[in-house]
Here is the input.
Amino acid sequence: MKLGLSHLEYVPATTRATMSCLGAVIAFEVDGETYAVPSHEMPGEVEWRADYMKWMVRRFVHYLARKPKDQWVKTLLEVEAEAVQKHLLLNVESQAFAEGVLLSLQDLSSSDIQLLASNAARHDMELKSAGEALTNRLERMLVAHGSRVRPGPHGEGEFKMKVRP
Here is the structure.
C-alpha cells in the first residue's frame, strides 16, 4: 500500500474454501518454502485477523495524527479503497477499519493527537514490531496447518476452473 499499512497477503477461509471448490489451491511462501493453506479456517485465524485489523487501525490513527485534520477524511477514504483493491480487507472489513479509525480519533483530545505526532518515531518502531509479530503468527499458522507443496508449471497453486457453457 502507498501508506505502508501492510505487506501481508492474506486470503480468508471462506474465499479459500470457494477457490478450493473451483480447483484452485491458495499457497503462500514462508522462508523459501511454499505452503498450501487449508480451505477451512485454521485454529487461531479469526483471532489473528481481529488483531491484524486492530493493528491497522492503530497504525493509521498514528499516521493521521501527523496530518492536518482537514486531510483526514480524504486520506482515509483513499486508504480504505486501496485496502480493498489490494485485497488486504474485504469491503465490510474496510468499512469497519475506517469507522474504527474515525472513532479512535474522535476519542483523542488535541493534546493526545499532538503527543502522538511528537512521538512518531517511537510509535513507528512499536507498530513495526507489532506488525512483525503478526506476520510471524500468520506464518506459524501457515506452517502448522498448511501442507508444503512444490510449485511448478502443472503443480499446486494453479487455477484450473472449467465451466460448461
The two ends are 38 Å apart (CA to CA). The longest strand covers residues 27-30.
